[in-house]
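Limitations
The structure tokens in this dataset are predictions for the assembled complex, not deposited experimental models. Users should treat interface geometry with appropriate caution, especially where small molecules or nucleic acid strands are included. An illustrative entry is reproduced here so readers can see what is and is not provided.
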Amino acid sequence: MLKIEIDGQAVEVEHGSTIIDAADKIGVAIPRFCYHKKLSVAANCRMCLVQVEKFNKPLPACATPVSEGMKIFTRSKSAIEAQKSVMEFLLINHPLDCPICDQGGECELQDIAVGYGSVKSRYTEEKRVVLNKNIGPLVSTDMTRCIQCTRCVRFLKEIGGMMELGLVGRGEHAEITAYVDKSVESELSGNIIDLCPVGALTSKPFRYSARSWELTRRPSIAAHDALGSQIEVQVKNNRVMRVLPREKESINECWISDRDRFSYEGLNSTERLTVPMIKQNGEWKEADWKSALEYVANRLKVVAEKDGNDIGFLVAPTSTMEEGYLTKKLARGLKSGNVDHRLRRGDFRLDGHFQGTPWMGCNIPDLQEMDRVLVIGSNLRNEHPLLAHRLRHAVKMNAAEVSIVSSLDDDPLMPVAFKEICSPDGMINELLQILKAMSSLQRLSLCLPPSLNKLLEGIEVSANADAIAHSLAGLGKDYDLVSPRSGVFLGNMAQHHPRYSELYSLAEAIASLCGATFGVFSESANRVGLDLARALPSAGALNARTMLEQPRKAYMLVNVEPEFDCRNGKQAADAMAQADFVVALTPFKSFALNDADVMLPVAPFTETSGTFMSMEGRVQSFAAAVKPLGECRPGWKVLRVLGNLLGLEGFDFDSSEAVKNEIFGGEKPSKVVWNKLNNNLRHLVEVDVKATSTALRRIGEIPLYQSDAIVRRSLPLQKAGQSSVGMAAMNSALMQKLGLQEGDLVRVKQDAEAVKLPVRLDDRVYDNCVRVPVCAETARLGDLYGEISVEKAS
Amino acid sequence: MLSQESLARIDRELTKYPDDHRQSAVMSALRIAQDELGWLSKDTIAFVADYLRIPAIAALEVATFYNMYELEPVGRHKITVCTNISCMLRGSDEIVDHLEKRLGVHMGETTPDGKYTIKEGECMGCCGGAPLFHINNKRMCEYLTPEKVDEILGELK
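Predicted assembly:
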């Protein structure tokens, strides 16, 4: 520790701290523009100049490391003079168009200019003008306002993982730009809006719609991935105007993904359902709540009287714990065991084998402390943008070795130590190889149960699998082998894999063999929470897949758009069409719900109170940020009233808090969670070593901006994600084999459904696989990982 | 885009830096590309960046920062005259006037036959030989007089 003095205040700081760190620690304000605690130090704005004893000129506080006994003066005559001069220079070319600038009122330049700016400008020459750049549908630019702090450049390079912006030119001609009219494609790009200390980068969707002082700030939780990022919903006239991150170091630091930032545009979509609708003679008619709910209760009762199991309950994994729990309770009351929220899952053989609720296996910040990580079946940047950043950080700071096993070779924008791109079936074999390689490492050879040993007979270990095993085991490397900082994680694509249970049990075996943390990067905001609330089929009942394979007489859909949210869009649509009665609790009117009989408008996450549980098991409740739109009602209230109308016991909740209390049995959530989270299996699941298929396989990826109903309706996000949907992508070998050229129109056929799509060359897709992402065009196709045929369209 | 010879030269530059610091070779690589093609188009810069496995924008930053990289096509012989203080005191204005008159173009322009480009440069660190210019960033010509300029222009093919 070093003892220094700032403005006469003694302070002890760690070796290597800079003056600005020390000053921030004791709350001495030093003005700054380019410095940001999460980014590298550039020291190019010079605003943080301070006087240091024994130095004859002011020093930049952000780039000057402290030394023992240093005396720093941040408010001395020379310091203030230096800061004021810098301010004067910064304002020379700044347009001072605050009245028409979106940043006005929340602008760092404006704030600091109040303290350090001069009353009058001495500059009479012409100011420079910089042309605006179009960097995509999310971030709007006004480059004349830029003060070249380069925070945006450093963010995209260091946090985003790809340098998409740069400072070109020199001196007066320096300007921030992307390479020749390119857009910024980072899935974290929205953060540069927050970082920009002036109005050069502002939010395109939010532009000119409100002033920061007109907005009411309400805390909430992000609803589009399982991180549980803390957000601030900003509201004007009962309308969500924008979403910003709240700082939470242990979850989202000070960032959020673009999906969480711009999804709110979907909340204000014209497709919002605002009144209950009942279909009469094939036509949608508006209804009042009372008659709609009574109608639903009666119809459900009729079916349930015969057999409760004729009703299927599908809950979107983005629903709150309260909604999931009440749906389950309703189902049980109607004597139906068919409840599920794992709509995109294909393999349910693990049901009944879990010792608890599967989760991430560690906390989010642990990830960036790891030095060896194996990620299985994950398109990280799409699935969990901020987890990708944590891993990127681990690679950069700890020289972590990240290995990947997947069918898609999408660039995670970080150096990957080893990767094995293989067919979906090949992934099983690959894990077996890693397991075998690892079991043959001397240190670990005795740990494998005989049942597994048998499986490994005849498996040939490739050099790559061997390398992954060595990396994970940390053999011959300078790693802590007693308490290893390594992890094995399953991503969304692994969870959608048709042989998920085999992947799971092999990954678990690999992790336990090398002492690594084992976990699942859960899909959707509340997958873990809904598991904990047991929105799951009871023993012997139907799960999300079988409920559609064996069509039910009636369905209740909670926040679900069957074609988009279910694994097999075609099957889901058919099941809905066949059913006698379908009631959808939904915030949106949707063509995917045309086969429903009743649509009840329920509130999306900004309009209801509720609870999400993140993949790390953090239980976070939130209140409504705005009043429900039109006649929308919170989902838990609708379910409660339905329970009452059906005459079921135990539906007398007067708040979502009361529902939450019941879920956790009146205990403190953290205590319950601690006891229930468990990734271990009771038994080993059977692994079929030989199963392979030569058929053309679909890789039904869920694109970044197709993940749930709200995101799908956010126009800016749809524009940003255009390039990743509506195509059949395959590698050059397959294109040649099928005699196709890039851009050709093909008929993509699955089961009885066919759609026409353009072909895209994509060598990141494995042989004999076709990447057909889920989107409006492909929603009616079948299984996400099913067989597929592709032929040239005539 | 670049000849095998140029690529070999870039490869040689790359051997001077550790493998994970390929970016360090960006200045040499851009210079080699410019030597071959005369100037750096956006495509050339992107090609070089790709070859070094760095983002195109990172190479563009460097190419736009230094004024010896040409971002527009130039004539076969690019003559950069120093007009900073030492050269000015030693009569660089006269050299500039002479060049402009003799070639019929202004500073920053290229002759219609594409043979010459003349441009202003900043101090080249050889003030002892002022006034001076250099040709194609390679050949430095010192102690210039109008007669000597004519002589040098006569030598250029």
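Some entries come with short summary sentences. For this one: The radius of gyration of chain A is 28 Å.
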